[in-house]
Design brief:
The complex is a heterodimer of chains A (about 550) and B (about 350). Chain A is an alpha/beta fold. Helix content of chain A is about 40%, strand content about 25%. Chain B has helices spanning about 5-20, 25-75, 80-85, 90-110, 110-115, 145-180, 180-195, 200-210, 215-240, 245-255, 255-295, 305-310, 325-350. The chains are: A alpha/beta (about 550), B mainly alpha (about 350).
């Protein structure tokens, strides 16, 4: 295949405005971007940096309520997209520029078979006939190493796994052999083990067809594997651009450095206290949703003042274990001990004090805070409910809690959750749990919906609070970097069973249980050669099998 | 050919040319299609038809003007947040609000506005309009205009009370069923199914003939008939809220059901419930009018729009529009409330573009 390296996409002084509060506000402030054929550019930045907006603009598209300002220029293969009529743009999209969205599950139409959705664009643009296109799809499926490439396309989207669907989506983007593909956080919603399959598949296929790509993500380690060039964005402005190795080894801007430094947060591991009763003890718990068993003989202990991280892929029973502890899902057998005393299995049978002792912080702060209730009441209600505080005493307590989570009380007291950013909401969620003065807090993926810088702030806050208030955490996560920074002990779960558990330093050193090993080695590292090395070690062909390893 | 016809066409053609010159697409299409329609109507119906067209256009322009100025008035006098909402409201919403406002005023101040009492016989039966009686007299010689004004108070007041009661019952039960789930949810759901399976008019006729017709029974019967619809809506909206994490957090805190409903669920399901309130109000209003027409609603001599239509129905055969006036009052309020409800639905659905 000829490796043409000419300029494919040239964006000059791109400005995009968004309409809000009856005004047009500029959200992207003059971005320049040049992309050659066969080149992969990584766009990284926090949420609100304009990554996706720029990615979409590269297709000449803006979301509802946005517009590209006059004077911006988007030149795709010699064609000026800002002045091209909508009908011409339409025939460009899908055929020459393709888009892969974050959630494949939401982007596929659940009512049609995968292959029918795949062949839609080639047939519509009269590039291929139906049968030809189907044949082509099967070939692409094979290249993307999907299992049963000749049959998988005839399933419906809900009949394949998330990682497979994301790969099928990539195959669909390749259907018309586009010159440019825009990947918008394609692996963010996937587990680490699945992420590897998708990453390597995407990398191979982009390589094989000499396709240019814009890879949008907030995960630096991922972008390090995928991109030739990285562009760092902050609030619609470019911070810096350099090729991947230079950027990783020698970031120039302070903001980039701070992004790089996020993963440095590490805290000393505490040893397990001797001769004490564990604060929370899960003993031989089995649980089921209806007739489907989910947990099998799960046992672990959490001691006062310690952080126990529970890790595993989605569906491994991490959150179910938490639901058993809180009493939302009474276990079918086994028991939960708190300070050596058995807790009633159903939360409705627990006393107010038992409920107060164990609190929970949720993954999605958006759904964890009532949008129609003021911050003061969200935080104040547990204090009022458990301690019977009223009037000025209650207000003082709320102020105190807001201080504790490092938010200015006067500024937040009267606001509503939708007015806050993701990180601020998560802090409010923490304050609400603290208002109950608990001894034990379950943190259910508290940082996975947040940007790295913000997530790090939350982790530091949780650590500070643990020191000050001697809290115990059960930290549910699939992100091993988080585990590395905050945990004292680690529990690895798979298929509803505890695979391995022990102190963190022991857990992160070999020898491991095979599954722990797979999980640990799948966490992307900042080294640009990491993926290549890993794939060589594992042997490219058994990635699929490795993931199913039991 | 007289001056009116020449002026009529000259104005229309001139206006559409102006619109075309200034590249105003929508006004041009509107004006020019009106011109073409008037050509046909002028040929078919002659001059009188053109007068009708002019009158209709004038009325539409007049109500648009009224709605516009009323909206601007509201923007000026309302507090900031509400004013911002009003500014983006469509003209139809302004019109709806204006009509509701007018009805409210005439209902509240009925004794002051109406020149005569609602049961006062002042002239002969079916007397035509004169300087004393704006709209003439009804079948007993009572002033039509005064009765219309009093009707606003009686009919609308009754419908409002019945709707509020239906909502209080339906929403509470619906949210309670959504929160509790299980057997109670099933039981309430089946009761509601039974009530909804009986046609509302027949069911109300049945209940009213058992319990007799007085205002209190009427309100309760209507509320019972309409509460199931509210129950269904409240339960489904509540069902979406109940699964949120903040409800789980509140449950784990040990909060009682009543707190959950009042503080956590209700504020998050109020938007569709308010919109439904507007719609239900229209249905209840029509049911009250219908019952009165059948003689089971508000009892004479109390003025009521539904029964006024029935009592004066004979006049229709003499070419008089008197019975159409109370009917028009009902129609106008229904349309107005629906305009406002449309606007609220649009707002709560979040479809701004």
């Amino acid at each position: 295949m000829s490796q043409d390296k000419s300029v494919l996409l040239k964006i000059k002084d791109l400005r995009i405005e968004g309409y809000s509060d009856e005004h047009w506000i500029e959200i992207v402030h003059g971005i320049d971007l040049t992309l050659h054929r066969g080149e992969v550019m990584g766009l990284i930045g926090e949420s609100g940096a304009g990554k996706s907006t720029i990615g979409l603009a590269a297709m000449g598209f803006t979301r509802d309520g946005c517009r590209i300002s006059k004077g911006s220029s988007i030149e795709f293969d010699g064609m000026e997209l800002t002045t091209t009529p909508a009908s011409d743009l339409q025939s460009l999209r899908g055929a020459r520029i393709a888009y892969v969205a974050q959630s494949a599950a939401a982007s596929f139409n659940p009512a049609h078979k995968i292959i029918d959705q795949h062949t839609e664009a080639p047939i519509q643009y009269r590039i291929q006939k139906r049968l030809e296109s189907q044949e082509d799809a099967m070939e692409l499926y094979e290249r993307l190493r999907l299992p049963n490439p000749r049959e998988i396309g005839f399933r419906y989207p809900h009949q394949v796994s998330g990682g497979q669907l994301q790969r099928a989506m990539t195959a669909m983007a390749m259907a018309c052999r586009p010159d440019l593909i825009i990947f918008d956080e394609p692996t963010t919603a996937l587990d680490v083990t699945t992420q590897i399959e998708v990453l390597s598949a995407i990398r191979d296929i982009v390589d094989q067809f000499n396709t240019a790509a814009i890879y949008i993500t907030h995960d630096l380690a991922v972008v390090a594997q995928m991109a030739n060039v990285i562009k760092v964005l902050l609030k619609g402005d470019e911070v810096e651009e350099a090729d991947t190795r230079t950027m990783l080894e020698n970031p120039k801007d302070d903001y980039t450095k701070s992004l790089w430094a996020v993963r440095d947060f590490k805290r000393d591991q505490k040893p397990r206290p001797v001769d004490t009763v564990p604060l929370v003890s899960v003993k031989n718990v089995d649980a089921a949703y209806g007739d489907t068993p989910v947990l099998h003989d799960v046992s672990f202990d959490i001691f006062a003042g310690m952080t126990v991280a529970v890790v595993g892929e989605s569906g491994s029973g991490k959150s179910t274990a938490a639901r058993c502890i809180t009493g939302l899902l009474p276990p079918t057998s086994g028991e939960i001990l708190f300070n050596g005393e058995a807790l009633p299995p159903d939360y409705r049978d627990r006393t107010k004090d038992q409920l107060r002792q164990a609190q929970m912080i949720y993954q999605m702060a958006d759904t964890a805070l009532n949008p129609k209730v003021k911050i003061s009441e969200i935080i104040g209600r547990p204090a009022q409910f458990y301690s019977g505080l009223k009037g000025p005493a209650l207000k003082n307590r709320v102020d105190e809690l807001l201080d504790l989570i490092e938010l200015e009380p006067a500024q937040y007291y009267h606001r509503y959750p939708p007015e806050l950013s993701g990180g601020q909401k998560q802090r409010i969620g923490i304050a609400r749990t603290l208002a109950a003065e608990p001894a034990f807090i379950i943190c259910d993926e508290v940082t996975s919906a947040l940007d790295q810088l913000v997530a790090e702030g939350i982790l530091r806050l949780l650590d500070k609070l643990q020191k000050e208030l001697n809290l115990s955490y059960m930290f549910i996560t699939h992100d091993l970097a988080t585990v590395r920074s905050i945990a004292d002990e680690v529990v690895v779960m798979q298929y509803g069973k505890v695979v391995e558990q022990g102190p963190k330093d022991v857990m992160f050193k070999p020898p491991h249980h095979a599954y722990t090993d797979l999980l640990l080695s799948s966490v992307p590292e900042m080294d640009p050669d990491w993926l290549t090395t890993l794939l060589e070690e594992r042997g490219v062909d058994n990635i699929g099998e490795a993931a199913k390893l039991k | 050919m007289n001056y009116f016809i020449i002026g009529f066409y000259a104005l229309l053609i001139g206006a559409s040319s102006l619109a075309a010159y200034y590249q105003k697409r929508t006004p041009f299409v509107l004006l020019f299609s009106l011109t073409l329609v008037s050509f046909v109507m002028g040929i078919v119906g002659g001059e009188s038809m053109l007068w009708a067209v002019t009158l209709l256009a004038g009325m539409i322009a007049f109500s648009a003007g009224v709605s516009y100025s009323f909206r601007e008035f509201l923007v000026l006098i309302l507090p900031r947040d509400l004013a911002k909402e009003m500014r983006t409201a469509p003209l139809t919403a302004g019109f709806g609000l204006f009509v509701i406002f007018t009805y409210a005023i005439s209902g509240i101040f009925a004794p002051i506005i109406a020149p005569f009492g609602e049961a006062e016989v002042i002239s002969s039966a079916f007397a035509p309009a004169d300087e004393n009686m704006l709209l003439g007299a009804d079948q007993l010689g009572r002033d039509m205009f005064s009765r219309i004004i009093y009707g606003a108070r009686n009919t609308v007041g009754l419908a409002l009370l019945a709707t509020i009661l239906a909502f209080a019952m339906g929403a509470t039960a619906g949210l309670y069923a959504a929160t509790k789930g299980g057997k109670l949810d099933q039981l309430l759901g089946r009761i509601v199914d039974v009530i909804m399976s009986i046609p509302s008019l027949i069911f109300s006729l049945l209940l009213l003939s058992i319990f007799g017709t007085n205002t209190a029974t009427l309100i309760i019967v209507i509320a019972i008939i309409y509460a199931p619809r509210v129950f269904r809506l409240a339960r489904s909206v509540g069902g979406n809220v109940v699964v949120m994490d903040y409800i789980e957090a509140a449950k784990l805190r040990g909060e009682g059901t009543w707190y959950l409903i009042r503080k956590e669920i209700l504020p998050n399901s109020s938007a569709p419930l308010i919109a439904e309130f507007g719609l239900e109000f229209c249905f209840v209003f029509l049911l009250v009018a219908g019952l009165s027409f059948l003689g089971l609603g508000i009892q004479p001599p109390t003025a009521d729009w539904g029964s006024m239509v029935r009592e004066n129905a004979t006049l229709i055969s003499f070419g008089e529009i008197t019975p159409l006036i109370p009917a028009g009052a009902i129609a106008l309020l229904t349309v107005a409330v629906n305009f406002v409800v449309d606007w609220m639905l649009y707002r709560s659905s979040g479809l701004k573009e």
